[in-house]
Write a structure and sequence with these properties.
Elements lengths: L41 E4 L5 H12 L4 E6 L2 H18 L4 E6 L5 H15 L4 E4 L21 H4 L3 H25 L6 E5 L14 H21 L5 E6 L16 H4 L6 H10 L9 E4 L4 H6 L1 H7 L9
Parallel strand pairs: 1-2, 1-4, 2-3, 4-5, 5-6, 6-7
């Protein structure tokens, strides 16, 4: 099957143009450097050492959070990120406490220890970003379209690892941190899972099956968390973080990848800051995209709530 990645070719249910205005770069009204977060404001980011998690962490630092717990599997990556956070804090003239925790979201004990360290240091968490994620390993022989991503269930031999990181990892993080989010009553109590607009696709050369299934399930997981823990104040969001060149995507081959992976690497972080700087119950349990215009999104509030939009449903 030939792949057509053009924006015009995407079906409406992908939600690409849910707001008429589409952003690939940070618009001024959500620039984190122009935001001042409440104090205290504690943020935890998994998969923070590289890619989107790195830039999401910097966005919260730029917005003046009081504490950042950064987690990844590589200590040296965390050291480099902590150094950049320190520079941002110095430039702002503020203090940001940084907690570095080496943790693998595939490990129950690592995730439990991350929660324990955050609880001991601050006794609260305002925003939990379940960002750690991977895509299936490349295949040796590209398809006729030039894609080096595995096509179909037979080629996608990376199923177990991808599901354990992208889905079970989000489940482990959610299970560990929902109680602390529930206790942090004076904050946004926000859980954000990194999902993907690409999960709407059933073309496996674009989204390998393991990745697709993990992200679809992650969206439903956020809906369930919102339903089950909303009365405790917990909000949960499934975030499309844009189409970005990251360590996971930089070696994608074939097709129009250079045109697709064109979003600003800082856009997702800026959107996260906007999403969580205050309570937004009307968006909790839903899919959101960092490419959307927030003013136009807010104008759709009544429509979203009345129609129960931005959730997975079967068309019958």
């Amino acid at each position: 099957m030939a792949m057509d990645f053009s924006n015009a070719a995407l079906p409406a249910h992908y939600g690409l143009h849910f707001t008429p205005t589409f952003h690939s770069k940070i618009p001024p009204n959500i620039d984190p450097t122009s935001t001042t977060l409440p104090n205290p404001f504690i943020v935890v980011v998994t998969g923070a050492g590289k890619g989107l998690g790195y830039h999401i962490s910097l966005a919260y630092a730029s917005a003046g959070c009081s504490g950042l717990a950064i987690s990844s599997r590589t200590s040296s990556d965390l050291d480099a990120l902590a150094s950049e956070i320190s520079k941002i804090a110095e430039k702002r003239g503020t203090k940001i406490e940084v907690l570095k925790v080496v943790a693998d979201v595939q490990s129950d004990s690592d995730v439990s220890n991350l929660e324990k360290e955050v609880r001991q240091k601050w006794g609260r968490v305002d925003v939990m970003i379940a960002n750690a994620g991977v895509i299936s390993k490349y295949v040796e022989a590209p398809s006729s379209s030039g894609s080096n991503l595995p096509r179909g269930i037979v080629q996608d031999a990376d199923w177990a690892r991808v599901l354990d990181i992208n889905l079970n990892g989000v489940w482990r993080v959610s299970k560990a941190f929902v109680p602390l989010l529930s206790e942090s009553k004076d904050g946004p109590q926000a859980l954000i899972s990194s999902c993907s607009m690409a999960a709407h696709s059933t073309i496996s050369e674009l989204t390998p099956i393991a990745y697709n299934v993990s992200k679809v399930a992650g969206m439903r997981l956020m809906e369930c968390v919102a339903n089950d823990h909303g009365e405790e104040g917990v909000q949960a969001f499934a975030l499309h973080p844009g189409a970005v060149v990251t360590p996971q995507t930089k070696n994608h081959a074939g097709g129009q990848w250079s045109d697709i992976l064109a979003d600003d690497e800082g856009l997702a972080g800026a959107f996260c800051v906007w999403l969580t700087k205050e309570k937004r119950e009307w968006l909790s349990g839903r899919y959101v995209s960092c490419n959307w215009n927030v003013k136009e999104l807010e104008a759709k509030k009544d429509e979203i709530v009345k129609g129960n939009l931005l959730k997975y449903r079967m068309v019958v």
